[in-house]
Amino acid sequence: MKVVIAGYGMAGARLAELLAARDAGVEVTVIGAEARPAANRVLLSRLLTGELTETDLSLHEPGWAPRSGVDLRTGTSVSHVDRDGRHVLLSDGTHVPYDALVLATGSRPVLPPIEGLAPDAPGVTVLRTVDDFLGAAAVLDAEARAVVLGGGVLGLETAFALSRRATSVTVVQPSGRLMDRQLDAGAAAILNGLCRRHGLCTVLGRGAVRLYPGEGVKLDDGSFLPAELTVVAAGVRPDTRLAECAGLAVDGGVLVDDRLRTTDPAIHAIGDCARATVPPQGLVAPAWRQAEVLADVLTGGDARYHHSPAPTRLRAGNIDLTVVGDGRAETGEVLRFEDPAGGRYARLAVDGDRLSGAILLGLDDAAARITQLHDGREPLPADRIALMFGRSLPAGPAGADALVCRCNGVTEKSLVDAWRAGAADAAALTAATRAGTGCGDCAGRVAALTATLNRGDTP
Amino acid sequence: MNAVATHCPYCALQCAMGLVPDGRGLKVVARDFPVNEGSLCRKGWSATALLDHPERLRTPLVREKGRLREASWEEALDRVVHGIRAIGERHGADAVAVFGGGGLTNEKAYQLGKFARVALGTAQIDYNGRFCMSSAAAAGMRAFGLDRGLPFPVTDLAGADAVMLVGVNIAETMPPLVRHLRGVRDRGGLIVVDPRRSPTAELAALHLRPRPGTDLALSLGMLHAAVSSGLTDDDHITSRTTGFAEAWRIASRWWPERTEPVTGVAAADLTTAVATLASARNAYILTGRGTEQHSSGADQVSGWINLALALGLPGRPGSGYGCVTGQGNGQGGREHGQKADQLPGYRSITDADARAHVAGVWGVDPDVLPGPGRSAFELLDALGTPGGPRGLLVFGSNPVVSAPDSARVARRLAALDLLVVADLVLSETAALADVVLPVPQWAEEDGTMTNLEGRVLLRRKATEPPPGVRDELRILADLAVRLGQPPERFPVDAEAVFDELRRASAGGPADYAGIGYDRLRAGEALHWPCPAPGHPGTPRPFTERFAHPDGRARFRAVDHRGPAETTDADRPLWLTTGRILAQYQSGAQTRRIAELDAEPFVEVHPDTAAHAGLADGDVARVVSRRGTIVARVRLAPGIRPDTVFTPFHFPGAARANLATNPALDPLSRMPEFKACAVRLEPA
Q: Is B165 exposed, middle or buried (0-12, 13-18, 19+ CB in 10 A)?
């Protein structure tokens, strides 16, 4: 069985690993356009800050492919699919036959209609490949000014990373609201405040009309933002060109069934290029899950892919922002907490005892818990405060039966009894009850209780 | 009256205590010692109550017409030997098996291994430490080339700025150890990883509450955070370790936001924990059963060791990684030959040089020594099956309560032709035996123990055992001689056995050659390896080099795989098990002591209880794919709502191990005690 994987990104690399590890007699060929090992895209922004190197991002060490028995061809891409002949033609002119072809071509950046926008020009980048990031990092220096066109998740994460190296960073968001696909107005306003507090400039409700590479950007109100580096972060769209040329059904992604099969049963699609139930979100978790299912399917298993919505996370600076489900849902019970000064915000939409969506900003404990509740479709806890803040309120004060010394099972009552029987100081109480002879933590409480009793007070 | 210097009969901390005559019995008095500083928990203070307990066995018992009756030693031993011979003649030497315990002294553990291999000629010996220390042992071995629970004295912990306890509940299981964490608590550096808010978690500045069975994802996320935030000790990684790149290749895929939904630990808490450990001048990561008792236990421990290595902790004085050993002689018990694959001195039974050395000490031909046998659960599960053992000798263990899927284990024990149990009370396992042999307790004999720091301790005899009770060394000698062994091969004096153990361990990883009773009586602090009489012992074995041939520690490229079974609509909760302060292990000792409370319970989050229609104090059934536990509900808002907890000390319908999963770790053969899928319902 010959499997050809078109695309050596996070989905394609994962599938190749899983197929190789299964040792099921599958011959795997992987075609990667970049001339380097697949990179961990999640960590790309660390190249801008210099925290990690290109090697740190490699998903595979040198020699991985031959050791795993994988035929890895980098620096080339699939230019044509011959579905009848079951082979692909590569841009280097070679043919590769397949029994199963997997499209893992990922996504490509959206280029907004801005005059002068040429993604290859010096000082302009779409930040998609390792080269894009290394090129941008090379432009950055202490005097550099940067403009980021787009205030979505990628734009904001990039802006925060750039701000570690550049003198000024401005985010331009035409819609007037940061992360407008995920946030309601309240959350977006608080997030905007946090960005500004962090030293980012944000320009909301204004779009770029003309780009001068290496010099700056002109906005639709006529103002000009000088910038040595302009980053275009206007979103991505599934790269379905190959599927379309091959005549496969495409609708906001290559259409696949729960076995990740396209309309041609010999061709599959996974990751950012595939539409399995819902349009791709550009997240790694579903792409890896699809790779796992497909590895099983291609080796004779009967796994099925079921879409489960992944949370959206903003990983930028000290900001902790999580959106699960439809954070802007208006049905049912809506719980809201706003703390602009503290930079915190919570909005929970509850339908019966289930969560339909949540936006959580600066409430990381709650975010972890709510993500699990949502993923597991678990019933919500009765204590809504604990739900919203991730912690229960403390319990009330303990009574006379509460343990003072856990190690020796000594209650306040037994200490009082021992005192009444004549143990007049802490040492005598310890000798009589053993309180304090274990971990020793209660010594202070025993001493305080002795003092109280000796003063004639009731504890 | 001078107190007899000894150590507590229970956990691996081995707190020092003195015993003084008190009326007709003995009384416990404080004794100063580094690990406990004169303190004890209530188990230690009340330990002598079992010495003259009415349920103490004082004569052998043999089964006749289905009932146990009293018998003489002659009759009981003859019955054992007759049974062994009959089985051996029909089914071969491997048809008789031995099951030991991590509470036995070094001398008994050593002699038990020798008895099995030489007198019985069986490969089938393992012990309950497999349920305790095996995952940490396997992971420590492959990382450092040596498995010593704590490769530093516990007093070193006092100087730490950060300590992370992973699946360790010391405030409940070994309270005096909490004293050594006072400094780190005052400095706000105590981090506890536990699915429930245990008494230890109450002490922590930061409590991470992962879903049971997801610790490896958590440690990978922490390693990721350490690397991606530039918090690693790169000099340490370069100069003292190998394998970092491969470990990072896996951790690079576990960014904190990916670990969060898997573990339930907030990404922000995870990064705070890493920053706390990385910014500390001195820091420790310590693991316990919570992270080790899993079907991926060895890899989970490797995950924590990887994190510790990346932060430069192991091998640096004042910092480190360690495993907090559980049973009293959990450390020594795994070094001297009761493990299926080991010979004394922590030698491998498959190593030709090791076999030749040990056979030389034993005065036998190396070729007669059997090879490796089955691991503990596999051994128990094979009993009475075709090809499996037909006879079993149990010393210092109560597997009917302590083994996973314990109803199945009880069925296997019932299928035996011969079950012999040596114990001091009629434990749940002894009650099923054909022959029960009464043995002495810690205060009635001399012997050595090796505590959680690898320090060898002398326990001294303070009183005579009851008449009719026989020491295990004597029992093994009696049986060996009846089986045709020369008497001089099985000495009965503990010091003589220890001297032989020293020679057998000489040159091995756990080298006791230089440790003599004389040095222990003089109060020397001797941590193994101690290869010669003048050697000062090795409190910190890794400060110069690790024990692999190249002197380097090894990262291990491990990935998260999760528990062996999953929750579903029918069993939506995780059950995890553990110990409580007032009880110890299967409870055979502690449940009989009046002042220690002994009430089984299941700890449940109030929301989870309400959802199941249960209130505090109600009797609930905890139903797994294997069995059902019945216990009272104890509400606890600090436990994860998807998790319930029950202690494993109790017999009968409250037996936690009726529910637990015997899925084994492929390397350590540790069962999955800490994560099985259950539902909760009113009884």
A: buried
